[in-house]
Design a protein that fits this description.
Elements lengths: L1 E7 L2 E7 L5 H8 L18 E4 L2 E4 L12 E3 L11 H8 L9 H14 L5 H8 L9 H15 L5
Parallel strand pairs: 1-5
Antiparallel strand pairs: 1-2, 3-4, 3-5
Helix pairs in contact: 2-5
């Protein structure tokens, strides 16, 4: 057991856990943040995507020791005063069906816009390629991310 100190959704957090325990389970079971989903458990599907120090990572394959001293943002942390532009774009473009992949897609898009405020469509596709949507909403998801990029840079979607 080790005390891990990190910033979670803008707030300092200290938790004593097995340092090898996966971030996903600490978020969901210990901290009650169930927006991050368990999908494949192997880091393949992207349902568990969170952002650590500005980069999209798979919470199911991230041990707690890897977030010690870092900033972690979950889908719950996107909403500050109203919806984040990425969230609003997903609503506007109906970029979800069942919604299971949506938190991971939102976090991947959020990280991409943070890394590259004006990504090309090819970069968006490439970045989201590792996040699976089994309902087939990919076209609407891409439209939503493009809209969020336009909003982020002050353009119109």
């Amino acid at each position: 057991m080790k005390t891990i100190a990190f910033t979670l959704n803008g707030r300092p957090q200290r938790i004593t856990v097995d340092e090898h325990r996966q971030l996903l389970w600490v978020l969901r079971t210990d901290l009650g943040l169930t927006g991050t989903k368990y999908g494949c458990g192997e880091g393949f599907c992207g349902a568990c995507t969170v952002v650590v120090d500005g980069r999209a990572v798979r919470a199911c394959s991230t041990p707690m020791r890897a977030v010690d001293g870092r900033h972690v943002t979950t889908v719950e942390g996107l909403q500050n005063e109203g919806l984040h532009p990425v969230q609003q774009a997903f609503i506007d473009h109906e970029a979800f069906q069942c919604g299971f992949c949506t938190p991971g897609m939102l976090m991947a898009a959020y990280a991409l816009i943070g890394e590259s405020p004006t990504p090309s469509q090819e970069r968006i596709v490439s970045h989201l390629d590792r996040n699976l949507c089994r309902c087939g909403a990919h076209t609407r998801i891409l439209a939503a991310v493009q809209s969020a990029v336009a909003t982020h840079r002050g353009g119109r979607s």
